[in-house]
Amino acid sequence: KAMRNFVHTSHPSRVIFGTGTVGQVRDEVERLGCSRVLLLAGPAVAKAAARVRDVLGDLIAAEFDGAVMHTPVEVTERALDVLREHSADCLVAVGGGSTTGLAKALALRTDLPQLILPTTYAGSEVTPVLGETHDGRKVTQSSPAILPETVVYDVEFTRDLPVGMSVTSGVNALAHAVEALYSPQANPVIDGMALDAVGRIARALPALVAEPSDTAARADLLHAAWLAGTCLASVGMGLHHKLCHTLGGTFGLPHAETHTVILPHAMAYNAPAARDVMSRIAEALGVADAPSGVFDLIASVGGPTSLGGLGMAQADLPEVARLAVATPYPNPRELTYQGIESLLEDAWRGRRPA
Ligand code: NAD
Question: Which of 131, 154, 158, 304 is the most buried (most CB within 10 A)?
Answer without folding.
Answer: 154
